[in-house]
C-alpha cells in the first residue's frame, strides 16, 4: 500500500483585477464603439461589432474570479438541459409574441407543468437572458416575455438544430468519451466508420450517414436541422463569389452543386445571378433527389455518389457546400480524386468550397467549438493552412478565398495544379 497522500487542493489566489488592464480594455471598447458609430458600410459595422464582442468577453473574463469561471464551465451543459425541457413543454410557443404574461396565466397554458417546476426553468432562462422576467407595478407579480433569442427558437429550423445536437450528436459524444479515445488513442479519427459516433452505436461497418438513414425519425430531424443555414442567411453567400464569371462546359453547364441536397444553395445562387438560369446542375444521391428539390425545372438533376463515382460532368465548375467538414482528410481526398479527372485539361474549371475557414490564429470561441462538434462523426473544421495542405495533397491549389473571416462560410476558389 502506498504511503503517498494526495496533494492538498489549493484555493485560487485572492482576486484583484488590474486597474490598468481594466482601463485598457474599457478604452478599447469605447474606441470600437466610436468606430461602429462612424461606420459607413455593413462590413465596417460588422467588424466593429465583432471587436466590441471580443473585447467585452475579455473584460468579462478579467473581472470574473476563477471560482466563478470554474462554476460557469461546470454548469454550462445544464443550460442546454433547461432549454431542452422548455422545448418539450412548448414553453416558447406559449408566450405571447409581444408583451408579457404572468406566471399564473402561463401555467394554465402548460397544464402538464406545475407552477413551481415552471418557475425553476424560467429563472434559469431569465438569468441567461433567453427570456425576460419583470415585476411591474402595481401588483409586482412575475411577468415573462420573449427576447429576440427565444423568438428565434420558435423557428422550426432553430428547434431542429438544437434537438439535432441534443438528441443525436451530444449523446454519442458522452457515450464514447473516454472509451473511444482510450481504445484508439487521442488522435483525430481517420476512418469514417470508426469514429466516436459509430463507437457509441457499437458498429464499425457503417459511418454516421449510414446509421442516420436507418433511423427515419433521426434522419428527418437531421435534415430539418440542416435548414438552419437558410434561416441564418444563405442569401449573402449567393453574392459572395462572382458566379457569373464561370465558364460553362460544352454541355452548357456552368456550375455543378455536388452533394447539394434539395438545392437550397443553388436556388440562392440562381436568384442572385439570373444569368446562370439554365446553366446549373444539382447532384446528390438518388434517394435525396427523390425526396424533392426546391430548384426550378431548368436545373439539371443528376444522381451522383462522390465516394463511388468519378465526376461524370466534365469541364464545368464544382461547388461543394458543407461537404468536406463532415469527413476526415482521407475521405476528402477520395472525393477530390473522383473530381480531378473531370477538371483535368480544362484550365477554366474551378473547384469552389463553401465552408467555415477558421483563422490560423485566435479563432473565435463560437467557431472553433464547432470543430469538436464535428469530431464525433470524424469531421473537422479547418483553418486556411489546413485547407491549403489538404488541397495540395489532392493536386489542387488555392487561388482566392472570398469572405475570409466571415461570420459563417467563406468560399475557397481552387484549380487543379497542372
Automatic annotation (TrEMBL):
Keywords: Methyltransferase, S-adenosyl-L-methionine, Transferase. One of its GO terms (molecular function) is O-methyltransferase activity. SUPFAM superfamilies: S-adenosyl-L-methionine-dependent methyltransferases, Winged helix' DNA-binding domain. This is S-adenosyl-L-methionine-dependent methyltransferase. The keyword Protein biosynthesis does not apply. InterPro entries: COMT-like, COMT_C, SAM-dependent_MTases_sf, WH-like_DNA-bd_sf, WH_DNA-bd_sf. One of its GO terms (biological process) is methylation. Residues 195-397 form the O-methyltransferase C-terminal domain.
